[in-house]
Design goal:
Layout lengths: L11 E5 L6 H14 L4 E5 L13 E2 L8 H10 L6 E5 L2 H10 L3 E3 L6 H4 L2 H17 L7 E7 L5 H13 L5 E5 L7 H4 L6 H8 L3 H14 L5 E9 L4 E10 L4 E5 L14 E6 L2 H8 L5 H26 L7 E4 L7 E3 L1 H15 L1
Parallel strand pairs: 1-2, 1-4, 2-3, 4-5, 6-10, 6-11, 7-10, 11-12
Antiparallel strand pairs: 8-9, 12-13
Helix pairs in contact: 5-6, 8-11
Length: about 350
Amino acid sequence: MSAPLLSSDCEQVLVDARLAPGRPALAALLAELRAARPDCKLLLFETPPATAGESVGAEALAGSDGEGGTEELERARGEGRLARTLVFSDRERVLAWARRVGLPAFAAVPGLPVAEQLSRRALVLRDAVTVLLHARRQREGAPFLVGINGIDKAGKTSFAAALGERLAGFGLQVEQVALSAFTADKKERRAKGYPEAEGFYRKHYALERLREQILLPLRQARELPLELAFDVHDLARDRGGGKRRLQLARGAIVILEGPFLFQADVFGLYDFRIYLVSDFERALELALAGLAGKAREQRQQEFQRRELAAQSLYLKQETPWKRAHLVLRGVNTDTPRIEDAHVDALFAAQRAATES
């Protein structure tokens, strides 16, 4: 059991020429790929016959007869030509070969722009799903809790939604819960005894209620199905909003996202932990988007004095990225990437558990 090659780490894209019939269409496809992934070398599988003056501008792996099959791919792999390569095809035999030899394989979607299919964002999301599903095999049949942590405006909510959508595509039940549902009551939030930043860190969310109503019940449940009921806070009215009930079937995944999640006394209750790295300047930029004048000035002062100061305290005390299985940077930008130092440790730990 070894860690898979992450598709976002690939330095080459192997393109199936059958995706674009005819050399003009193929040249257009490769031009799209070069624009979308200028950092990657392009390799071409089963190149169509050339005519005078035509060029597609990619290294070919097979001859022009189109009969190379996976034997040609296997030969190229044996020669070391396919290291760190992402396979892009719509043929199941090519995709199945890639999966068998441990290369990331993307099934091409007709009509969807190449830039969208192979964008940095799409690849990072795919990698997160791959590693998460591998980790989930260790708790097959039991509840599986995913925690997504990061400072305000790091992209937690949107990334959780995208992750849940991809997981649901595998036929899995996915339930998303935001820490904002556990906002503490006004009286608790205004309790004296802390400076403003530390008070926001310690009192803004009912973290003990989170522990008792979600974290511990999921950890203690040995199998599914399970009914999970927890109190929720009505943010619009700033008061209790009743209960939410989740009917968790076998194989269900619960995604919990929010700040302050990976504190020392609870981080071990998550089955899989994702930390989103973002800088405070980017967070402030996003928090102030669309505001102007006095409203912008007031929000800036409040956001820096309260949310960012509280999260700075949390980062210093807890170093949550060190407790994550997967660390992603720049999810709230157009160029996210995976910092995968902790991924290898996760797979090594699972391999040792399997062999013991």
